[in-house]
Amino acid sequence: MSTHNTTNESGEMYSASETIIELRNTEVVFDMSRGVSRVLDNVDLDIRRGEILGVVGESGSGKSMLASAMLDAVVDPGILSGQITYYPDDGDPVNVLGLSDEELRRLRWEDISMVFQGAMSSFNPTMSVKGHFVETLEAHEYDREEGMERAHELLSDLYLDPERVLESYPHELSGGMRQRALIALSVVLEPDLLVMDEPTAALDLLMQRSILSLLEGLKEKYDLTMVFITHDLPLVAELANRMAVMYAFELVEKGSTDEILQNAAHPYTRALLNSTPNLDAPLSEMTSIEGSAPDPVNVPEGCSYHPRCPLADEQCVAEAPDFHDVSSSHQVECFHWEDAAEAIPFNIEQPSSPEEGEAR
Ligand SMILES: Nc1ncnc2c1ncn2[C@@H]1O[C@H](COP(=O)(O)OP(=O)(O)OP(=O)(O)O)[C@@H](O)[C@H]1O
Ligand code: SF4
Ligand SMILES: [Mg+2]
């Protein structure tokens, strides 16, 4: 495992042998006819080896942009800047934005694998599931026999009948089966890190839950680090060790799942938790957060949440807040985080964390 010194998100020096990917000042801009659209704004994030990180935020907040940035996969004409470093478990750190196309192609499946949003529909309808596995293995010169053995094992780990699924065409599988086949495909080349963008969005609640528990098993067995991106904070809270909350193209709160659920310090995170009380709640109980998500060409000055924030004052309108430490494992970008809990009480008991869930 590589060990090197670096500064963490709070600017402290530490040994980063536990970091698998590190983003610093990561930005994406699109030059639009109506102005510059900053769709990822100065993101600093460390993903730690072996963790499940949940990235949450409402639609349009920049979650998919963050995922694309991690793999230098931002679509043209978007301009990505900043430093993105991948730390393999053996070997030297990799400057992701300095890679050649071929190096990037390898990194993308063999080290860091991504299940893109809506990827279920990207299955080629005229190719069997087996064809998809074979194509992926061949494109990466991976031993076919060994690869197909791994495919079988992965599919059965995901409670699918490997023979049947491999022979099927995508349309012959249910949504939940197709999604599991896609997850198996994305880890067949033994990546260290799996990034999933809304992998359960098209599934019903029961299937969402069962996919989550399957992912947990997969992570343990294959020693994966996972990033799970969703607009549904309570959904991923059961799975993630740590959460990062996005608002208006930036991260506004980062912390252990426990701390975020029990003591969310950003007014937006508290509103987000209140808007989706728990996994079993009927849709009618969900409240939406007042106001609308900002337009990337016209992000409000000062704290970008101020037009929607019940705690906003003159300072919030004039200045952008920096991150403050709520604890050593919990940071928030808000001037008045100490007042957030009182001003925005939770309207229902928050879901339990994975650890608590086990203890019960
Ligand atoms: N190709 C593009 N050109 C210009 N702007 C884009 C492009 N793709 C996305 N955006 C803008 O970037 C911003 C962030 O989008 P992104 O897709 O990352 O949001 P998201 O959080 O993933 O939303 P959702 O939950 O709906 O998937 C949005 O304002 C979106 O309109
Ligand atoms: S900085 Fe001000 S406007 Fe922004 S979230 Fe905190 S209290 Fe609200
Ligand atoms: Mg998205």
Question: How would you characterize the overall build of this protein?
Answer:
This protein has 360 residues and is of the alpha/beta class. 33% of the residues lie in helices and 23% in strands. It folds into two domains: 5-231, P-loop containing nucleotide triphosphate hydrolases (Rossmann fold); 253-359, no CATH class. It has 13 helices and 14 strands. A hairpin with a 7-residue loop joins strand 6 (79-86) and strand 7 (94-95). The two termini are 35 Å apart. Mean pLDDT is 89; it is low at 356-360. Bound molecules: adenosine-5'-triphosphate, iron/sulfur cluster and magnesium ion. Iron/sulfur cluster is lined by residues 266-267, 303, 305-306, 309, 311-312, 316, 321, 334-336. Iron/sulfur cluster binds next to loops.
What does this entry show, briefly?
With 360 residues, the protein is α/β, with parallel strands linked by helices.
Strand segment count: 14
Shape: globular
Task: Give helix and strand order, one letter per element, not per position.
Answer: EEEEEHEEHEHHHHEHEHEEHHHEEHH
DSSP helix fraction: 25-40%
The domain count comes to 2
Bound molecules: adenosine-5'-triphosphate, iron/sulfur cluster, magnesium ion
Task: Report the span from N to C terminus.
Answer: 35 Å
Q: Structural class, judged by helices and strands?
A: alpha/beta
CATH superfamily of the largest domain: P-loop containing nucleotide triphosphate hydrolases
Low-confidence stretches: 356-360
